[in-house]
Design goal:
α8 (176-199) packs parallel to α10 and α10 crosses α15 (376-386). Residues 1-5 have low confidence and may be disordered. The protein has helices spanning 7-23, 29-38, 46-65, 70-93, 98-115, 128-142, 163-173, 176-199, 203-218, 223-237, 243-261, 271-295, 319-328, 339-367, 376-386, 391-395, 400-411. Helix content is 67%, strand content 0%.
Length: 419
């Protein structure tokens, strides 16, 4: 399968992000704060940077040569430019334990291996009519308990005002059912219905879906609720063969805007660099270091997760609040960790290996379901979650297992297609 990408542009992207990191991002407040707390400095080590760069260019070459289906290629490509490359740049600048970077390398190359494994899944699959009926029935019945919160909504949230006040209020209001299913609807079920509505030009269904999404957004004011569905719609209209190129060109444009702004703005005032590059790309690597530094040889063994009740959790606060307080003096910031730091926190490097294996199994099953590429945005949002949230939370609370089940029995196609 021919997949056109620009090797040179990916290399150029790496150099642009490197320039942005060393001139601006490493001087931002979060990095300065960790330096004060740990005395770890983020400088430019020419020899280390050159060695890391050679490995990055080799990895780009490997990615270019891999012959994969479009969905797998796009997922791997976005992990490459959004997470692997920033993790490489961050590692080149900081005297941190090499095992942290090794974890990122193992994850990327393990995903390459898992995407190469092919087999046929012999399970029944619902047709389009049955799928829509089931999803709509689940939505109509499932959102009924949320109607009791209508008198608690704040319409100012539509203007992105009072966001954190509303978020805290609904954390107290939500019961167990609401806490779990809110994410299941907003991150999985509603985005899937959106794709079906677009694909089959069901305008009324799309309008109903939008109304339900807005209602659920107002019940918690989680901005990713809107962002996730917006990404699903955007990626729906981008041809699968052009997804990587479009994302790469867009990121390069944002990087250049951020670099041009450097002489005119303080580091923390460079909005594009803060939102897109610092927050999305480099904060996960910084938190990997913080979690590894704090929980090294003092692991939780999932006592704060799915083994809660069987094992005693040793702290009064959540790991995210502990890291937020100790490294940033902001316990309320909830410094959520992703797949790598979640593994270090729970069982050290073996914990990372467990998460990598589970992640590879998940994406291997998705790959072999031969999903229509127009659903790509849903899986992209899942990729974003695994780098910013504990892996068990992504699978359970954020609907990872649900997405896997719906993919197997509703989105799977029996015949291969490149649409």
């Amino acid at each position: 399968m021919k997949f056109r990408i620009s090797f040179v542009f990916t290399e150029l992207y790496y150099l642009l992000v490197s320039l942005l990191y060393f001139t601006t991002i490493r001087h931002m407040w979060f990095f300065r704060k960790v330096t004060l707390k740990t005395e770890v400095t983020y400088g430019f080590n020419g020899i280390k940077y050159c060695l890391v760069s050679l490995f990055v260019f080799f990895t780009i070459w490997v990615y270019k040569k891999m012959k994969l289906d479009l969905l797998s290629k796009n997922i791997l490509g976005l992990i490459l430019v959004i997470y692997f490359i920033p993790a490489s740049i961050f590692y080149s600048s900081a005297p941190i334990n090499p095992v942290i970077y090794l974890a990122h390398v193992l994850l990327f190359y393990s995903l390459i291996f898992s995407f190469r494994i092919r087999y046929k899944i012999k399970l029944p699959v619902f047709n389009r009519r049955q799928t829509l009926f089931i999803l709509l029935a689940i939505t109509l019945i499932g959102i009924l308990p949320f109607l009791r919160y209508l008198n608690q909504i704040n319409l100012r949230n539509l203007l992105l005002m009072d966001i954190y006040t509303t978020r805290f209020k609904f954390r107290l209001l939500f019961d167990t059912y609401s806490s779990y299913t809110h994410s299941w609807f907003t991150r999985v079920i509603i985005p899937i219905i959106f794709v079906f509505a677009l694909k089959y030009k069901m305008r009324l269904l799309a309008l109903f879906n939008l109304m339900v999404l807005i209602m659920l957004f107002l019940m918690g004011a989680v901005k990713s609720v809107i962002l996730g569905s917006l990404l699903v719609v955007v990626f729906y209209f981008i041809p699968a063969r052009k997804v990587y190129n479009y994302v790469l060109m867009g990121l390069m444009g944002l990087a250049m805007v951020s670099i041009i702004s450097i002489p005119f703005l303080y580091a923390d005032d460079n909005i594009v660099a803060v939102i897109m590059f610092r927050r999305v790309m480099f904060i996960p690597g910084l938190l990997d270091y913080c979690y590894h530094d704090f929980f090294n040889s003092d692991y939780l063994y999932w006592s704060g997760g799915f083994l809660k009740g069987l094992l005693e959790y040793p702290y009064e606060e959540s790991p995210a609040r502990i890291i937020g307080e100790l490294y940033f003096d902001r316990p309320a910031m909830a410094a959520n960790n992703g797949l790598i730091s979640d593994g270090f926190m729970n069982a050290g490097f073996p914990g990372v290996l467990v998460n990598i294996v589970l992640c590879c199994i998940f994406f291997n099953i998705i790959k072999n379901c031969n999903v229509d590429n127009r659903f790509f945005g849903i899986y992209f949002f899942f990729v974003y979650n695994i780098f910013t949230t504990t892996f068990s939370t992504v699978l359970l609370t954020h609907g990872g297992f649900l997405l896997l089940l719906l993919t197997l029995f509703m989105l799977r196609r029996k015949k291969e297609s490149n649409v």
